[in-house]
Amino acid sequence: MTTLAVGERPSLRDSVAFDAVICISPAILLLVAMTLLPLAAVVVLSVTDYQLGGTDIHFIGIENFMRIGESDDAGRAILNTLRFTALVVPASVAIGLVLALLVSARGRLRRAYELLLFLPLTATMTVMAIVWSLLLHGQIGPINVALKAMGLAPIEFLSNVELVLPSLALIAVWQQSSFCFVVFLAGLSAIPTEVYEAAALDRVGSGWERFRRITWPLLAPTTVVVLLLTTIKAFQVFDLVAVLTQGGPQGATDVLLYETYLQAFSYFRIGYGSALIMLFIAFVGIVSTLQMWFARRRQP
């Protein structure tokens, strides 16, 4: 580092660098306080036997992770999370893409469609879960009232072991497809019209051919972003389960984050709950890495 002689003025570069450090330091401090420190605490607690309210804490190595591997509850929660993600992600991405393609082709009514399809994204999932609990109610829900009016047996969407997880996935798709729609619509708007004009000159006439040869390849980066964010959001499912089913019936909707909540704040096993959080972070990291690797392989 260069030193300044007495009376020498600091250079413009040093002044700009100092100002830059001053400007970004609040953001760095916030990042450390809100992200890095909690993450470090979770890492440390995951290898201890700490219980909430306890005074003793002991280092136990990977024992918590071994207990996860031996636990039927943790295994079921992981499997339910994977099943939920497998239901939500493909459906949300496909519906969002189709809606974006349809709306992008509309002229005067495009703004109205955009507003209508954007609304689910503005609602908090906790509030909408309460609304959906009424819609899917086994006795007074509008769907079952209509079924009974037609002489059909009501469907127990939220108490049937086989139907409850797909029902929660349907609610998540309803909201996540709105997010996918917004991102895909932005991606479609960024495609230059000259590309389609050139395709018309090359006699790429049908809508399917234009989509397959032009639109879909140009949407590849957008699709990777949508897949990544939708997958992470599906892995983070908690509020739906906490409001609608509390992990039931018979553990059919016990997902990873809800199991973490139970272990940490109902059974006060903070160390074990931290190990579950580390497992969740590992899942998200692996999925994100695989999707980014696949996207880079597709790039020319």
TrEMBL record:
It is found in: Cell membrane. The chain crosses the membrane at residues 21-45, 84-103, 115-135, 214-235, 270-294. GO terms for biological process: transmembrane transport. Gene3D superfamilies: MetI-like. Keywords: Cell membrane, Membrane, Transmembrane, Transmembrane helix, Transport. The keyword Isomerase does not apply. Residues 78-291 form the ABC transmembrane type-1 domain. One of its GO terms (cellular component) is plasma membrane. It is a multi-pass membrane protein. PROSITE patterns: ABC_TM1. PANTHER family: ABC TRANSPORTER PERMEASE PROTEIN, INNER MEMBRANE ABC TRANSPORTER PERMEASE PROTEIN YCJO. Belongs to the binding-protein-dependent transport system permease family. This is ABC transporter permease. It comes from Rhizobium tubonense.
